[in-house]
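From the pipeline queue, job 12 of 40. The input is one protein chain; the requested action is below.

Action: predict structure.
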Amino acid sequence: MSVLIFNIITIFPNFFTGPFSYGIINQAQKKNRVIIKIHNLRDFAEDRHKSIDDRPFGGGEGMVFKPEPLFRAVQHIYERQAGTETSTILLSAQGQKFSQAIAFELSQCKELTLICGRYEGVDERVAQFLSDREISIGDYVLSGGELAACVLVDSITRLLPGVLNNDISIMNESFSGSKFLDDANENQSYTILDYPQYTRPENFGGLKVPQVLLSGNHANVNLWRRKKALEKTLKNRPDLLQYDRLSERDKQLLHMELEP
């Protein structure tokens, strides 16, 4: 199996000590499925003050990352990984919204370099001429790209073969491939969220697990799960799915009275 290398360029290198020391990411490193390299941006500043930012041209509040240290940092990474195909990603609020589909795409790479923005942003020449793409993890503002980098590393790492104990399980999660398709109609595809999950005890303070999940009838269980997944998607994420886009099979399923 090949290994995926993550390079993370940041002004807070110690930020990642905790997040990458636990769970799936920690196990993936032990299995040598991923290698994570943290690069301190200040190491690539050449003045005696290790300056990595400056005031924006044209006026305005805050500070902007200068281009020189970032270009030097990425060039350093390229030289160290000579011959390896690398994709450079700028994490910023102006980027393309991150999705499961992008995570799958990036999981096919051999090396990814993540630039963590800070302050009021990054010199636009970095976005135009240094990075291959700009990515945002959502329609909100963070103090910097470090949290976004953790999100990308986690979501991409868990898609790599051999990282999870059951690789098939990732295909049954919200936003994953098997959730996109209406099983009865290969031409009718849309995204739905995952179905509700229950575990022991069967009765918790009078709150009972749906009887269908205890029935052993897998056909009924599958129908119930798809119905509940559709209901949850229409309720919680109407931006993903509208009722009039549903297949006739799924519309009928929504109106069915299934075993409780």
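Job complete. Residues 181-255 form a domain with the Trp Operon Repressor; Chain A fold (CATH 1.10.1270.20).
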